[in-house]
Amino acid sequence: MTPTTSGLREAETVRLVDFLAGELVRAGVTHMFGVGGANIEDLFDAVHRGGAVRGVVAKHEFSAVTMADGYARTTGRLGVVAATSGGGAMNLVPGLAEAYASRVPVLALVGQPPTGQEGHGAFQDSSGRAGSFDAREVFAPVSRFCARVDDPDSLGELLPRAVAAAQADPRGPAVLLLPKDVQQARILVSSRDTAPTPGGPAAAFAARLDAAAVRAVSDVLRGAGRVLVIAGEDVAAADMRGDLAELARRLGAWVAVTPDAKDVFDNRDPRFAGVAGVMGHANVEDCLRRADLCLLVGTRLPLLARGGLDKALATTEVVSLGPEPPFVAGTALGGNLRDALRAVTLRLPSRPRPCPPHTGPLPTPMPGPLFQARERTVPHAQAVAAVAAALPQDAHVFVDAGNAGASAIHLLPAPRHGRFVVAVGMGGMGYTFGAGIGAALATGRRTYVLAGDGAFFMHGMEVHTAVEYDAPVTFVIFNNNAHAMCALREQFLQGGVRGDDLFARTDLAAGVAAAFPSLRATGATDAAHLRTALLRGNARGGPAFVAVDCDPREIPPFLPFQSFTEATDSKEGSDERGVVHVG
Question: Could you say which DSSP state residue 559 is in?
């Protein structure tokens, strides 16, 4: 981006915020998410006046970030969030941390008090002066680029640097701190300046491929017999699903996916091995043990994706494609994933190879519940099956943390033409409510949010945002009246359930229906009722809300819990049974 705004004459002065709003348009941004306040109101005013970017007001800044995050993950474009100073700014941090860890390009525009008041007792001062803390030091660890715009004329340099940093590998948030008087300042712009093509700045940062490394990796792949590909979320971010399928076809490979990348390969394809890691399928480990080579594509294989696979990985040759080195030993071809994947594929024989037989992603049998249930409930497997029966194949799915999330990752096939997003970077509860709304508003597609009651109580009031903007989001709440994953950890690790994480019953559907009379809210009594309610929501525009009661005793398909129960059943200690610990 360069200092110019469409519709300007040869040279004139405009408010900095009007220039900024125009530059967002030029960068392809269609929505700006945020929460207003005195020190960011001028930017919201400029967006409103400009009309080309839609300003969306969230209920909480964390959810505003996740809206921008969901927008970016489903469109491939830069997500933008705006917030005021003080508490509003600080509420951005956990959302930016998720985007940082998950490599999601987000631009945060953060208001600050007027420069003349800083260091003189300004309200919400975070300049670092006169004993105040420095906002730059807060945001720097969770951003790829962080700068304070003290001089209005410097925005023409800092804004393109921020956008480029957010979109270059490794992607992530960029933060610009904007004092109120700087936002209001008038700057000179010229219509003779030209803007670069979208994505141009990021492309300049793409690492060049090492030709010798490409040849070496290609030679290894050509010589391999049985190959297991484990594909990650970077494949979706780079929109390389078709290229991944072609690679698998030429290799005759099984394809597994990481928990946050279930949508990168057709879950109904005969080559699909299942989900890798602690919420995954036993078939992946079986394929890995039978493989001569494991090829990582677009994943560093963090703990959630490799839990239970470490022993097999230690005895299997590993090759990885992607901009960052993997967390396991092996040969890495770095650089831009798109370039690396295509370069390697072109060096493989074009004739397809058959895929060796395998069992496929069969559900893992789980033991019965551990502690006393309090009421009639619907098993997670039945509830997820009802979702699968109703889910449109072009829908997006956002899965929250917790027992319900583990069940969905394990059991729910990804839609063929939509995203299946799990925020495992920070694993924060409540991420999906904002992210699902951002995705729905950005794409206009029906979007499903699958979350437990714990996540709902954190950020579920973003339902109000969905109602206000008529977003096509279906909220599916698995209500076990508990922080059930915490309760199970208490049972396994701390000598029994304390009861702190088991709650009195709450009728979420009735409460939401009373709060939002225009919202279709249903309390599903069984799996058939759940499916009917979901289909009804699909058939209409706007948001829908369905809650289904689940059992807090139910053990989800989560390898650490499974290994604990196996150890208990066999009367062997965790050391003998190889219990997998996460957290």
Answer: H
Q: Which range has highest mean pLDDT (345-354, 483-492, 571-580)?
A: 345-354
Residue 32 CA to residue 60 CA, distance in Å, equals: 14
Asked if the bond preceding 170 is cis, omega within 30° of 0, the reply is yes
224: pLDDT strictly greater than 50: yes
Rounded Cα distance, 148 and 130, in Å: 18
Of residues 403, 384, 421, 413, the one with CA closest to residue 530: 384
Rg (C-alpha) for the chain, rounded Å, is 25
Residue 325 half-sphere exposure toward CB, CA atoms < 13 A: 5
CB 295 within 8 A of CB 230: yes
The alpha carbon of residue 246 and the mean position of all alpha carbons in its chain are separated, in whole angstroms, by 25
Cα separation of 29 and 162, whole Å? 14
Q: Which residue has the tokens 């033409």?
A: 417
Phi, psi at 410, each rounded to 5°: -75, -40
* Cα–Cα distance, 526 to 140 (Å, whole number): 48
- Contact between residue 550 and residue 383 where contact means Cβ atoms under 8 Å apart: yes
Instruction: Check pLDDT > 90 for residue 370.
Output: no
- Helix axes 41-50 and 16-26, enclosed angle (nearest 10): 50
CA–CA dist 515, 89 (Å, integer): 28
Put the strands of the sheet holding 54-57 in their side by side order: 54-57, 31-34, 79-83, 106-112, 173-179, 145-148
Query: Is 182 in contact with 176 (CB distance < 8 Å)?
Result: no
Pair 301, 262: CB distance under 8 Å: no
What is the arithmetic mean of pLDDT over 455-471?
98
CA-to-CA distance for 192 and 200, rounded, in angstroms? 19
Which residues is 231 bridged to in the sheet? 257, 297
